[in-house]
Amino acid sequence: MSAMIDTPVDTPARSNEIVTLQAHILQQQSRYPEASGQFSWILSALAISAKMIASHVRRARLDDVLGTVGNQNVQGEQQQKLDVIANDILLRTLGGREGVAIVASEENEEPVILRTDDSAERKYCVLFDPLDGSSNLDVCGAVGTIFSILRKDRRSPDPQASLLQCGAEQVAAGYVLYGSSTVFVLTIGLGVDMFVLDPAYGAFIRVARGMQIPKTNKCYSVNEGNRLSFPEGYQKYLSWAQERGYSSRYAGAMVADVHRILLQGGVFMYPPTRKAPKGKLRLMYEANPMAMIVEQAGGKALSAPGERILDVRPTDIHQRVPVIIGSSEEVDQVAAHL
Predict the structure, then answer these.
(1) What are phi and psi of 316, to 5 degrees?
(2) Out of 82, 154, 164, 212, which residue is the most buried by the measure of CB atoms under 10 Å away?
(3) Rounded to an integer, what distance in angstroms lies between the CA atom of residue 54 and that of residue 41?
(4) Which residues, including other chains, have CB under 8 Å from residue 314's CB and lie 6 or more apart?
(5) Rounded Cα gap, residues 23 and 31, in angstroms
(6) What ranges make up the beta strands (E) of 106-181?
(7) Can you give the pLDDT of all 338 residues of the chain as single tens digits?
(8) Contact 33/9 with Cβ under 8 angstroms?
(9) CB-CB contact of 311 with 303 (8 Å)
(10) Residue 205's beta-bridge partner residues?
């Protein structure tokens, strides 16, 4: 599917219909008569991966796949057993899709180049964080998968260079939240839609279209345990917010925190710290896809005052950035203190 390039052919909307994620993907594809279907197959692979990972998450304690494997990933973080399982599922599922040229994971040092042919068919690069917040698993907390899809640049002699695109060039982005229910949130640049997995039928059912973040909500999400090592402006903002009765909500998984803000409003922050002076969250695997979703829902996403996350020019696939993301007015309040 050639999303975000050509003018779609509008089709009449039907009310009170039950729409699965698969049907939604096909509906979107039908709006582009020239679509080859490769893009749709990639989204289908992500949906299948989400179902498989959700099953492993539900059975993690029973199958004894909690805890670490004793290795560190490229980020210097302890790998959880389910990190490895989720990563393997996504690599194998996406690897079978002809439209995927390159896959890159937060867990792997180098991207996996699957296809280098220069055919006329569009090829895509898929980047993902296989299991965001995986340390929550041991306490039955929410975790998630985040993904970003880019077009492969056929003009580039280096296949890996196709990955180093600004977030504004993303074709699609989304996340899956594995919590009390399994939620799949997706944007292809035409708004944000939400689906919930019905375990009785094994299908994601569309439950919301054209989602919009409330412009304001007196709620912030940040790891306040690091407060004393935040830059002064962030500390001033927190004092300002607390004086005005703001609530603090922090789940320890970006997917869970941003999902709540998408529904209820507020602001999520991951500032620079003395330990991580460039920020902790990865631009390509976390910040860019979440920024695309939030902006498509009417919110804002900054890495610094006046600097959109989606405009940051990446220099490395594991690059880190500070993150301020959420309701437009709440993001502006943080930026004003910086």
Answers:
(1) -155, 145
(2) 82
(3) 20
(4) 163, 164, 165, 166, 283, 284
(5) 13
(6) 112-113, 124-132, 143-151, 172-178
(7) 434 333 333 334 445 788 999 999 888 877 766 667 788 999 999 999 999 999 999 888 888 777 676 555 555 566 778 999 999 999 999 998 888 999 999 989 888 888 766 655 668 999 999 999 988 888 888 999 999 999 988 777 676 778 999 999 999 999 999 999 999 999 999 999 999 999 999 999 999 999 999 999 999 999 999 999 999 999 999 999 999 999 999 999 999 999 999 999 999 999 999 999 999 999 999 999 999 999 999 999 999 999 999 999 999 999 999 999 999 999 999 999 99
(8) yes
(9) no
(10) 20, 196
List helix spans (H) across the chain.
21-30, 38-58, 81-95, 232-243, 254-264, 288-296, 328-337
Amino acid at 189: G
Dist. CA 209–CA 186, nearest whole Å: 10
Which tokens belong to 323?
């993150």
Q: Which of 104, 112, 215 is nearest to 149 (CA)?
A: 104
Contacting residues for 64 by C-beta, under 8 A, at least 6 apart: none
Residues 6+ apart with CB under 8 A from 76: none
- At position 281, the amino acid (one-letter code) is L
CA neighbor of 82 nearest in space, from 54, 117, 109, 122: 54
Report which of 198, 223, 200, 204 is spatially closest to residue 276, judged by C-alpha positions.
Answer: 223
For residue 129, which amino acid is it?
A: D
pTM: 0.90
CA distance from start to end of the chain: 41
